[in-house]
Amino acid sequence: MSDLILFWHRRDLRTTDNIGLAAARQKSKKVVGVFCLDPLILERDDVAPARVTYMIGSLQSLQERYAQAGSQLLILYSNPTQAIPALASAINANAVFWNWDVEPYSKERDRTVMLALKEKAIAVENNWDQLLHPPEEIRTGSNTPYTVYTPFWRNWSSKPKALPVEALKEAEGLTQQEQETAQKLGAIALPTAKDLGFIWDNDLVTAPGEAAAQEKLEEFCSSAIDDYQEQRNFPGVHGTSQLSAALKFGVIGVRTVWAATLTATENSRSDETQASIRAWQQELAWREFYQHAMYNFPELAEGAFRETLKNFPYNNNPEYFQAWCEGKTGYPIVDAAMRQMKEIGWMHNRCRMIVANFLTKDLLISPQMGEKYFMQNLYDWDLSANNGGWQWSASSGMDPKPIRIFNPASQAKKFDPEGEYIREWLPELRSVDTEYLITGKIPELERHACGYPAPIVDHNQQQRQFKELYQQQKAVSV
Fold it and tell me: Looking at domain 307-477, does it have CATH number 1.10.579.10?
């Protein structure tokens, strides 16, 4: 009879190319999955209904994969620091395996679970799965973490990448008696997002589950990746992979994704195509850079990295913030992006930079307020990537350039020159001339007729004010 290994899923909702799960299956045939719906996460005020909907759909897919492999995925709704050790003990698991995470809450939770399991004499094994290179592996010459992306990329890209690992197959599940014991310990049927109090009636940008993510990857690598470098910054064009949610929840393995880029490179027929593929690989490295940063500098989750911005005197005007949230700032490219997020739970990356820069530099509102609003709406929200993006846009993070200020009109002119994206998300402005649409300088009569607000601030004036405040802070922090 095989020893029972419990595999605790978190950010790895798949049975294919899952390092920890593959390691568990190598040790024993009897591998059973468990996922803990954590009330400490789900009962926070920053959880997006679209994100929970995607997660539940991915868990449903994962349960089906376990059944196909001959085992099962158990679902708990409880604090994992108590629930995981209690379940493992009750069903006589010999070991609990899981994959590491970089986030401060996850690290503390995992330490607590590990200690509780050791007290019960239950073995623990952990692996890095969500990264191509663990944080300890990518260090400077003086063995410190990188705080600038370019040298990080040079080191990271020079190292060989692991191949995808084997999928779970020919496994064994719990006996009837063990299943009954698990139910007494709180194992439940998988609830719907609505059962958990999260209502999302719109479609998701990417369907949940392994099969949908794999299909999305293949589709991207067979077409859009060839023009990625040229088209990725145009929000009106479908030029990105849209795999962010799949990578956030680990519905697809990062080794699988990397292997697909290598195949695409082998099949490419021009230098331009190879450059585009390389540009997308660099985005995967940005993802890892931000995760390494969160692992090595957990204080990033609480505020600014750069000293000058740690106590920046933001105005935090509540009316401005509300207008930004609702897409009613009077700056069409900003408002279009905010409405896109509200309607579909996703926003193009170029637009994330534009709206974050506008909130912090034009409206002088704290990036933490914007970061939280993104958490409340994005289906692909990830602490490391979201925080890294906001810190970059607010000039408070790991960026060698002291200040970046985007002019919304210049951004719109460059990346939505015909106003297609703006018209899609601001239908009231569809008949407005493109020049007015891009600059935001819509004649007053026309604006009134459309029911569109006047700009709530003057960009040039706000830019000057931000720079003055920045110089004052810089003088104080020296």
Answer: yes
